[in-house]
TrEMBL record:
Transmembrane segments: none annotated. This is Arsenate reductase family protein. It comes from the Bacteria. It comes from Kitasatospora arboriphila. Belongs to the ArsC family.
């Protein structure tokens, strides 16, 4: 299991605390320091069953500078969105947990964190 975090984010700190309380083994990835590649993002999006615009933090200044709110949200534009997330990882919603069973969640709630815990 891996969790992508920004240590300054309270939701990320909460998710890490929940994982610690559950006693599971996991790897922390500080995705701002070690940005995911476009291929890694495509894999995580597939595991999340989401599109790149679904995990984009559109209120970030970088999104505004790029005009992302006006970008088309069509299959043909996925690559553009993924490239932007890889180049500016601050735009990626957090935390994201990739579970050992293959799925992933945007773990912004305790319920989402629990959904990736082994039974």
């Amino acid at each position: 299991m891996e969790i992508w975090i920004n240590p300054r984010c309270s939701k990320c700190r909460s998710a890490v605390a929940d994982l610690d309380a559950a006693g599971v083994e996991y790897t922390v990835r500080r995705y701002l320091e070690e940005p995911p590649t476009p291929a890694e993002l495509a894999d995580v999006l597939s595991r999340l069953n989401l599109e790149p615009w679904d995990i984009t933090r559109l209120d970030e200044a970088a999104a505004g500078e790029l005009g992302m709110r006006q970008w088309p949200r069509e299959e043909a534009d996925r690559g553009r969105w993924i490239a932007a997330l890889a180049e500016q990882p601050i735009l990626i919603q957090r935390p994201i947990i990739t579970a050992d069973d293959g799925h992933a969640v945007v773990a912004r709630t305790p319920e989402a964190v629990r959904s990736v815990l082994p039974e």
